[in-house]
Amino acid sequence: MSSNTLHAPAPADDPAEPATPPEHLEPTIRVTAMPGDANMYGDIFGGWLMAQMDLAASSVASRRARGRAVTVAVDSMSFHRPVVVGSELSVYAHLTGSRRTSMRVSVQAWARDRHAEDERLITRAEFTFVATDGDGRPRELPTEG
């Protein structure tokens, strides 16, 4: 099978998919999907969803960098189901690794109907950031602690 082959979204009952949001994390961002964020069918644009995920990931990366951090890559983004207008989107982001100038942030987006409690995994991705100086050049991350 070619590495360029598209795969269908995981079924809702796929045991490989988490059934609930990460218990050890609070949402980095929580927002309501509005009509201006949707296509003519009432589904939220994937680009809007990706932007929310990038905002959440950049918040985590900027805190770790103690300054500016820029997105340099998004890997393994997969959309599992649509988000409809009025859904509450919760985006969870956490640092999964860092090197001299770069950081890796794992992000999951979950949605729930405003009148229900059940959340559904919508998408997840891995974001890579680089800490930059005032001139936009890579800089070393400060020591943790």
From TrEMBL:
Xref: SUPFAM superfamilies: Thioesterase/thiol ester dehydrase-isomerase
Domain called HotDog ACOT-type: residue spans: 23-135
Keyword Hydrolase: yes
GO MF terms held by the record: long-chain fatty acyl-CoA hydrolase activity
GO cellular component: cytosol
InterPro entries according to UniProt: Cytosol_ACT, HOTDOG_ACOT, HotDog_dom_sf, Thioestr_dom
Start and end residues of each stretch annotated as Disordered: 1-24
Species assigned in the record: Kytococcus aerolatus
Single Gene Ontology BP annotation: fatty acid catabolic process
Domain of life: Bacteria
Full protein name: Acyl-CoA thioesterase YciA
